[in-house]
């Protein structure tokens, strides 16, 4: 698919240069708005307004929503007042609010000036809610029905009002003061046996809803659990203020997962997609953890320094430091990442701590013993016999393998305890992943290694 | 929410024990099927059939679909033929196929025997497609319309047929031999100005579709790109065979992300959710990579052994090995994970290799120089002055910091090259993450470290 588009893009660009506008337009109108937006993001600055003006009104607005902020800003700055108004009239309130958030102040001012009063008040309302809350991702445009309406009247109302609503398939039944009473789907309306039945007799009343303050991650989790098309958003007085639709929930899921993955690998979450980040952006996201971990490695350095004499007496010990640290890091991150993912999918709660710890400890013992046994054989056959390292005695081999087993068990214990502790402290468990845990496990495993060496080898 | 349910669960279980079936039933019918399924998964084996029989038919089937396979199997074994038939009649074909896949052969036989012929043939059709293909996650129940039907006729058809279809909101227009011609949404039908307009005059014809063989990951990506409610699935002759709905795509997104995360941290993807995995399951998923990486650490061991004399001559060098390896591992995994995520979200293609490499190299140089400078100061102030390690000379400090800078640059280069190479070779880039890259970078950085030590310190 992607490869095909490279060719299409080339052809379209050529038509634009050759001013074959009529042919170009005929092709553009057959394309999907997401694909069109991708096309615009690759055009030169001068070509963007030219190509945009070829699109019919509705498709133009849909494409506009999907573009990168840079292209949007360029277009808005070039729009006449009339053009701007036309695009704004086609936007849903949540999309308009997303765009406003990304624009510089003078562009925002111009947008709010030309938005019709209803859209303007919706944008302002959405922007008032805290970032990452249900309020900030909802749209205020939904179909509302009254409990005493009949099915026939409701269908009529949808046909009259639906054109401006983001979804018409779920309709919310509200009472006095917009209190949320129930839910009726278009499916229920169409499949109702009688057009004269009242909405209150067929509506669903045991509703699942979120409040404007609910965290967007929780909202996304509810979508993936309940498979809804949309979720109603209510305020503290249980008044209906908006809906979140499944497509926004999907975006949140992706965004939150990317954030988790970045945190898990020692990066502060990025604001921009990778291809739009400059090396300096990447540097800023990556350097803090690298710096912190570099400095905290002072501890491992100190441990090695304080056992300098033991290492000098038995030089073979040094060569196993990377293996021990690597295995510790890998064992720990296997556990921490599994626990973090289960926590973030809601499969795991803090109250499962006992179960998790017990499961991980048993796993750690099986893994640790298996690895240690394999390592013992490998050291003897490869390092001692094949490579002929005479410094390796059975006792040295034993020290390495006992330390390895203990390292794996410690790593898995730390790997499940830290994310669970973070959860209990209401921190993001994702921070307690790989790099952080490796540093702790590195220090612990070196300590264990040298202590075993001292006591078993008598160094 | 979760905490509230713990209390509800307790109360419901008590009612069951006290045989207050009527009250229990009144409460159960107000609950959502996903929450009910969660409740069943925590019940004792004997209580499951008892509680299940209290549910009204439709809710019972919805709940059944959401349960864990263990509870489903238990129920099916306990069902009378009639009960089984009743539940099966309420299932959508894709859900039924999912259940059949998880059951042992004798249960499958019983299911297929009691499914009506249409459902049976759908299940068989879905199970014929390769695992992880669009065909295996689609449902065969959708609303199809003819191009010559009018809007009014179409609405009538939906009202007559809709009850058995997973979604009625998107209707597919098919011609001779079920060839896919176009798409009409219920929204278009309801908002059409005239009931006598023919479908072919309002249908969307530039359709986005997948084939039965399309990988489910690609399907999920298309949902998140295009925000569809459903995607049509066609066979090689462009005949319509089914649809994939957004909720299934969401499940695939979650599943594929978990798989990526597991692969990225040296685990083979798990078949079961974490809480249902035994320590032995976890062991089997985790030991292969641990074993492989333990053995491949032989190389780092060999490098250290061959520079034993240099280390003996300048003992301070040993204490910086963990810091170098740790920083290399962290730098490499930051890059590889970022690249892998961008590849899996479709933000990045193989043809972007040049851009990515150039971006990463510049980032690596800024990170490497900054870290090396900070490290130089830290070693001098902390390790030499504060901790009074007299073995550390300016030249030793210099060797460590030059090696550190080179390590960061190598790590970031390897971290972006390997996942891109995997992509080009049609392997899963996620395998080329942390553990794998750390092992390569460990060896490279130790080599660089000792070579610098030899040439700068003349060891």
Notes on the structure:
The structure is a homodimer of 459-residue chains. Helix content of chain A is 66%, strand content 6%. In chain A, the strands form two sheets. The first copy, chain A, has a three-stranded mixed beta sheet with strand order 1-2-3. In chain A, helix 15 links the parallel strand 4 and strand 5. The first copy, chain A, is elongated, with a radius of gyration of 30 Å. In chain A, helix 5 crosses helix 7, helix 20 packs parallel to helix 22 and helix 22 runs antiparallel to helix 23. The first copy, chain A, contains 23 helices and six strands. Chain A has 459 residues and is mostly helical. Chain A folds into three domains: 127 residues, MgtE N-terminal domain-like (MgtE N-terminal fold), CATH 1.25.60.10; 113 residues, CBS-domain; 161 residues, SLC41 divalent cation transporters, integral membrane domain (Tetracycline Repressor, domain 2, Orthogonal Bundle). The interface between A and B is large, with 117 and 117 residues.
Strand order of the largest sheet of chain A: 1-2-3
CATH superfamily of the largest domain in chain A: SLC41 divalent cation transporters, integral membrane domain
CATH architecture of the largest domain in chain A: Orthogonal Bundle
Would you tell me the overall average pLDDT of chain A? 86
What is the oligomer described by this structure? homodimer
Largest interface: A-B, 117 and 117 residues
CATH topology of the largest domain in chain A: Tetracycline Repressor, domain 2
Strand content of chain A: 5-15%
Distance between the termini of chain A: 65 Å
Topology pattern of chain A, helix = H, strand = E: HHHHHHHHHHHEHEEHHEHEEHHHHHHHH
Catalogue the unreliable spans of chain A.
Answer: none
Radius of gyration based on Cα positions of chain A: 30 Å
The structure class of chain A reads mainly alpha
């Amino acid at each position: 698919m992607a490869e095909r588009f490279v060719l299409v893009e080339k052809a379209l660009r050529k038509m634009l240069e050759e001013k074959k506008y009529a042919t170009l337009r005929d092709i553009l109108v057959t394309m999907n708005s997401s694909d069109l937006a991708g096309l615009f993001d690759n055009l030169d600055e001068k070509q963007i307004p030219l190509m945009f003006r070829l699109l019919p009104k509705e498709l133009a607005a849909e494409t506009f929503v999907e573009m990168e902020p840079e292209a949007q800003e360029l277009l808005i700055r070039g729009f006449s007042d009339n053009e701007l108004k036309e695009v704004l009239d086609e936007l849903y309130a949540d999309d308009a609010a997303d765009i406003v958030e990304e624009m510089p102040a003078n562009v925002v001012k111009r947008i709010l000036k030309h938005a019709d009063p209803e859209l303007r008040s919706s944008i302002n309302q959405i922007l008032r809610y805290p970032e990452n809350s249900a309020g900030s991702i909802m749209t205020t445009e939904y179909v509302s029905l009254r409990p005493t309406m009949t099915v026939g009247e409701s269908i009529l109302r949808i046909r009259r009002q639906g054109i401006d609503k983001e979804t018409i398939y779920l309709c919310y039944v509200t009472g006095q003061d917009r209190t949320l009473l129930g839910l009726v789907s278009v499916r229920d309306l169409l499949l109702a046996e009688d057009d004269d039945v009242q909405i209150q007799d067929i509506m669903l009343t045991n509703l699942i809803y979120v409040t404007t303050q609910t965290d967007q991650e929780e909202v996304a989790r509810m979508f993936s659990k309940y498979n809804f098309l949309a979720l109603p958003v209510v305020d503290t007085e249980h008044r209906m203020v908006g809906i979140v639709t499944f497509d926004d929930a999907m975006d949140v899921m992706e965004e939150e997962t990317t954030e988790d993955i970045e945190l898990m690998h020692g990066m502060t979450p990025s604001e921009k997609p990778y291809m739009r980040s400059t090396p300096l952006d990447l540097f800023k996201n990556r350097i803090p953890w690298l710096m912190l971990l570099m400095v905290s490695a002072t501890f491992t350095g100190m441990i090695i320094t304080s056992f300098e004499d033991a290492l000098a007496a038995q030089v073979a010990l040094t060569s196993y430091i990377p293996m021990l640290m690597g295995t510790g890091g890998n064992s720990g991150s296997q556990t921490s990442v599994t626990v973090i993912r289960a926590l973030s999918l809601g499969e795991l709660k803090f109250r499962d701590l006992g179960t998790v710890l017990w499961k991980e400890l048993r796993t750690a013992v099986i893994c640790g013993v298996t690895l240690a046994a394999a390592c013992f054989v490998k050291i003897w056959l490869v390092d001692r016999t094949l490579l002929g390292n005479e410094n390796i005695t059975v006792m040295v081999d034993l020290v390495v393998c006992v330390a390895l087993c203990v390292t794996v068990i410690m790593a898995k214990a730390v790997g499940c305890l830290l994310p669970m502790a973070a959860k209990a402290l209401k921190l993001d468990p994702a921070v307690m992943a790989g790099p952080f845990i490796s540093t702790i496990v590195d220090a612990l495993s070196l300590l264990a290694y040298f202590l075993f060496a001292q006591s078993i080898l008598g160094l």
